Amino acid sequence: MTEYYIPAGPGEASFVEKRSEFLGHVRMVETEEDAKAFVAQVKKEHYDARHNCWCYAIKDGPVRYSDDGEPQGTAGVPMLEVFQRQNVTNFVCVVTRYFGGVLLGAGGLLRAYTKSAKDALDAAGIAVVRRWVEVRLPCSYSLLERLKKETEAMDGIVTDVEYGAGVTILALLPEENAPAYSARIFDVTSGTVTPEVTGETFRPVRIS
């Protein structure tokens, strides 16, 4: 099974530490060229900032980072580690610092750049890219909440609910969980509900 994690969307975050403003920017990218272009774009937009520190990692490709004039090891690496701890790839992160006149020291810088990268990633969210089985689950209104919970318990994602005389849950199930899911739904509904597999897809789905 192949799966990996990426930013779910663009993310921006900012905070002020001892009069220095830190602006975090996160984007999903698929190539090193895209990552470099985004770094260049942010540097152009914030040309008057003291520092534009950055990092990026491409799946099965390069991993790069820069302290952009900050003391070595206080910016690029701690930013990169935020994403590595979450196993996120195909990302670029730039943290812009407008210097406020107060030195933060190595420890303060490390904490500030870590926080800025994490806040921007939290704003972006995380998506898992993997193969999913698409299922339809026609059921009664009385079973709706129970079957949504059973779906989530199998690491499934409810993508939509169609309402009519009855209810139809549309969901995505991890490929390897689909057989056990069908058996579980059959058991908990005493055979009154059977998931209908409608297809397969390989795509990102937001998980946080």
Strand content: 35-45%
Helix content, binned percent = 25-40%
Number of strands: 10
Biggest sheet layout: 5 strands, antiparallel
Put simply, the count of helices is 5
Label the structural class. Answer: alpha+beta
Low-pLDDT windows of residues? none
Q: What gyration radius follows from the Cα positions, in whole Å?
A: 22 Å
Dominant shape: elongated
Give the termini distance in whole angstroms. 21 Å
Average pLDDT level: 94
Q: Which H/E pattern describes the elements? A: EEEHEEHEHEHEEHE
List keywords for this structure.
alpha+beta, elongated, single chain, 208 residues, five-stranded antiparallel sheet, 38% strand
Question: What does it look like?
Answer:
The chain has 208 residues and is of the alpha+beta class. The protein has five helices and ten strands. It has helices spanning 32-45, 76-85, 105-124, 144-153, 178-188; strands at residues 4-7, 11-17, 20-28, 51-57, 63-66, 91-98, 126-139, 157-163, 167-174, 196-206. Strands 1, 7, 8, 9 and 10 form a five-stranded antiparallel β-sheet that branches. Strand 8 and strand 9 (167-174) form a beta hairpin. The radius of gyration is 22 Å and the shape is elongated. The chain starts with a strand and ends with a strand. The model has no long low-confidence stretch (mean pLDDT 94).
